[in-house]
Amino acid sequence: MTTSTTATPSQNGDSHSGPHIYHHHNPVDEVIVTEKLEVSRIRGSDRRMVNQYEFEKCLGKGQHGQVWVARDTLTSQVVAIKMLKRKDKKAEKLSALRKRNIPSQPHVPLVDKMSTTEMKILKEIAIMKKLRHPHVVRLLEVMDDHLLKEIYLVMEYCAGGEIKWRTKNNEPILRVSQTRRIIRDVILGLEYLHFQGIIHRDIKPANLFWSEDRRIVKIGDFGVSHFSQAQRAAVSGNEKEEEDPILLDESDLSRFAGTPMFLAPEVVADTYSDPSTLSTSTSDTPNESGKSTPKLRPPITKAIDIWALGVTIYCLLFGSLPFNGDSEFAIYRSIREDDWDVPETMGVDHIPTGGRHQAKPKKGRETEGFLLMSLLEGLLQKDPSKRLTLDGAKKHPWILKDMSHPDIWLRTTQMAGSIAATDAEASSALSFVRFKWTLDLARGISGFFRSVRPQRSLRPAEKPEKSRAKGKERQRDDLGTRSMPSVLTRQKSITIGVHEREKQKRRGVLRSSANQSAQDVRQHRAHDNRAGWRHSSHHAKNSEPLPSGSGLRVEGSGPKPRRSSAPGPANLDTLNIPSTSRIASPRPTHASSRQPNRSPHITTPIITTPSATTPSITTPSPLSSDTEDRGRNRFSLSASAMYRWVTGRSGAPSPQEMSSSALASGAVSPATAPSIIQDDRRLRTSRDLALRRSEDALHQASSRKSSSSSGPLTLAMRAASWGEVGVYRPSEDIQSIHSGEPNDETLDDETRFVGAGGYAQSPVPSLPSGVLSTVSSAASIGQPAFNAAQALLHRGGDGPPTIDLTSRPRSHATSPLGMGAPCRIGRQTIKGAGGGS
Ligand SMILES: Nc1ncnc2c1ncn2[C@@H]1O[C@H](COP(=O)(O)OP(=O)(O)OP(=O)(O)O)[C@@H](O)[C@H]1O
Fold first, then answer.
1. Whose CA is nearest to atom 14 of ligand 1?
2. Which atom in ligand 1 lies closest to the alpha carbon of residue 218?
3. Is 217:319 a contact under the CB 8 Å cutoff?
4. How far apart are CA 344 and CA 724, in angstroms?
5. Whose CA is nearest to atom 18 of ligand 1?
6. Which ligand 1 atom is the nearest neighbour of the CA of 202?
7. What are the residue numbers of the active site?
8. Dist. CA 62 → ligand 1 center (Å)
9. Reported pTM
10. 3-state SS string over 785-802?
11. Burial (Cβ within 10 Å: 0-12, 13-18, ≥19) of residue 188
């Protein structure tokens, strides 16, 4: 649900009048859009207050504005607020020059009415609004008052800061194992972005953020990201899916955006340095006149993120960049032409690399260095068509190294059919619903999954990107820590007319959805969410040129100068969707695709039959032969299987075995248990349970607004992303997954248990993995589930071990397990090194 809020009249006249209603964040809410702002100063201090947010300290300044840590005085939640200036004089001048060449049209393009900066901001917002994943920084609220010169993006605050990767002497500061875990998180986040049709375009260590305790890494900064409708349609199987017109503009891939050292070769292709060679020919053979025609520039696809991931891994492990130069031009040349090399050792733990080219060892004897070289080889392929895919990277032995159950990790973190790919689905609390244990829910879902096999759709035909822009480059003086500013070159596709039609369509949908049955609630929410977009951009899209702000003074000189623009890459969307990402079609948009028996609560990903226009094939998951397994009823309750294991018999737990509070709260219904257990019959092994737990963590996390560091949820999530899925491990394993100092003796039993994503040692020494993981999952879900788990496990006598869960696990923020512990290098304790600051 998107909510508009209003503010009080300002004391200082900074905002206009309106009733005093500030929105209270609810973890399952969609992004809030606030249109009226009150900007004031806190009495007796020079600190700024914007609506309910008290600004505390400035984190830094980027291209278009500042980022502040602020506190929500209503909830005490600490957030990061990005203040973006609507107008950017320099960028606009450049844009105005370009626009002179655009012929006049019956409808004035939206971009011509809005500043290019504002357009960019709106795009960033539109992209961020779609995202909800534990490894992606979350947008909580957009504060956009057209009377003010700044737009405020309230985001999840990642208190661990950005990932630091080198000392002043260009030495690495992370261990190899830490890097591996970071990269696993990034892969999961990136996989989600690509699944959503988003190319990040600025993957680099500085855009990867630690959670407060440095257990989780999240991808942030979507300032130059690109949304591809074609990619999205390929995933959803619905080419006609409605989207924001702002997002539909695909010309912006022709922008030359990103951070120079992390740009892929296809982005800096030599047509850039020599515009005369620019050609649309696909051949490099001599033509009739005998002249050789250069190859067509490779299309810009999500493969650019894979390249940047390779550069990022290199940075984290070696403390230096694989491609560098004294000037931007030299950097690009190096990216295009140079081979990369590696130092003798990697990581702060100085593990030998074995060199760039090494003889292939016998199977099973591959060294860390050998595996890394093979991974980098795949990621840093200059030809994007030969580059490793994200799926390939995820399955690479270096990434999976030291995992006790890589196959389970791969399966549990698989995107297709498991991750809610739409806003509506992402907003659902799958695990929470699961623990409601409603009969309809369990039956409906299991029936559904039995009847529908996963399908995967082929992507639509490639769209040629027409626009090409030429430009000059400018030298950059920083070392890849700053993104290049982005300037839209053409925005012809977005017109007021398009917007009006879009609005009318949505209104119609919204009206009719008001009368739909409860089964349509989820779909309604999706529309509602997108319609909510109108709140923030309504005036921008429909009104006359925006009035200049009356409130905040414009400070500074705007963004850094535009560095360069390049000839536009040729093609836009030949996005290679990993096979594992194609299985599900998550959002039905037509009534015909609705499942008649689905409960209004059911918000599980939907596997739709592909539309007539989209060819599809049915392919088993590459990870396992049991594709059907993926389609199983994920609502089958692990807890019931846990019950079966605990009691040694099938059937429902008796009411006495349920905790009274769980029953009282309605979270556990004895009447529903038999059917649930029946549905659960196929889940016989603890392995399945472990799998389930991990999925739950993902879903639960994706449903939470505040997926920051607090709460036990993130522990389960961490387990999933760190590849340690619900497996009991002895004490030495705790150290092996410990990113801080190995001799940390401060773990107490409870903390160990809280960290039960596979790290518990006591007090559950002989607990099978499934049970342990289930409890971990339950703990992440909340009191009712927690009570249920407790009821099931809390039995004495000759059965399995008793686990006392009477006290809620304490926040893992206090737990030293994992990356929270300091990492010392010499006498220094290094921030961002998986340790304290
Ligand atoms: N959600 C967040 N949580 C914590 N810190 C953040 C968050 N978002 C941004 N920051 C920090 O705020 C600072 C400013 O960020 P911003 O993205 O505006 O600029 P930048 O990354 O330095 O430059 P640019 O984006 O122009 O490349 C950076 O130090 C960044 O690490």
1. 60
2. 1
3. no
4. 30
5. 62
6. 27
7. 202
8. 6
9. 0.54
10. HHHHHHHHHCCCCCCCCC
11. buried
d(CA 269, CA 294): 11
Residue 662 burial (10 A CB sphere; 0-12, 13-18, 19+): buried
Calpha distance 420→424 (Å, rounded): 8
* Ligand 1 centroid to residue 560 C-alpha, Å: 15
Residue 163 near residue 205, CB atoms below 8 Å? yes
Within 10 Å of residue 593's Cβ, how many Cβ atoms?
16
For 513-557, the pLDDT digits (tens) are 333 333 343 444 444 333 332 333 333 333 333 233 333 232 232
Cα–Cα dist 321/314, whole Å: 7
CA distance 630 to 577: 18
Query: Do the bridges between strand 32-34 and strand 198-199 make them parallel or antiparallel, or are there none, so unpaired?
Result: unpaired
Query: Whose structure tokens read 């190899």?
Result: 176
Contact status, residue 56 vs residue 71, Cβ threshold 8 Å: yes
Query: Candidates 56, 59, 563: which one to mutate for ligand 1, based on the most atoms within 8 Å of Cβ?
Result: 59
- Measured from the Cα of 482, ligand 1's closest atom is 27
Q: Is the pLDDT of residue 332 over 50?
A: yes
- Beta pairing partners, 57: 69
> Token pair for residue 394?
């995820």
Which residues on adjacent β-strands are paired with residue 156? 79
Q: How far is the CA of 208 from the centre of ligand 1 (A)?
A: 10
Pair 279, 468: CB distance under 8 Å: no
For the chain, give the mean pLDDT. 56
DSSP 296: P
| Residue 347: HSE in the Cβ half-sphere, 13 Å Cα cutoff | 18
Q: Give me the helices (H) in 622-748, please.
A: 627-630, 638-647, 660-664, 673-679, 686-703, 713-721, 731-736
Measuring from atom 19 of ligand 1, which residue has the nearest CA? 62
Cβ < 6 Å from ligand 1: which residues? 59-60, 62-63, 67, 80, 82, 137, 155-158, 161-162, 206, 209, 220-221, 223, 482-483
Which amino acid residue places its CA nearest to atom 9 of ligand 1?
A: 67
Distance, in Å, from the CA atom of 106 to the CA atom of 699, rounded to the nearest integer, reads 46
| Nearest partner of 6 among 370, 14, 19, judged by Cα | 19
Beta strands 53-61 and 65-72 are antiparallel
Pocket perturbation via mutation, ligand 1, pick of 79, 221, 708 by most ligand atoms within 8 A of CB: 221
**Residue 165 corresponds to which amino acid?**
W
Whether the Cβ atoms of residue 271 and residue 231 lie closer than 8 Å to each other:
no
Which atom of ligand 1 is closest in space to residue 223's alpha carbon? 25
Tokens 């082929």: give the residue. 458
22-53 pLDDT tens trace: 544 444 457 888 888 889 888 888 889 999 99
3-state helix, strand, coil in the chain (%, to 5): 35, 10, 55
Dist. CA 121 → ligand 1 center (Å): 15
Give nearest CA residue, ligand 1 atom 11. 59
- Asked if this assembly's ipTM is beyond 0.95, the reply is yes
Spatial separation of the C-alpha atoms in residues 538 and 396, rounded to whole Å:
46
Element (H, E) at 829: strand 828-829
Main-chain dihedrals φ then ψ at residue 49, nearest 5 degrees: -125, 125
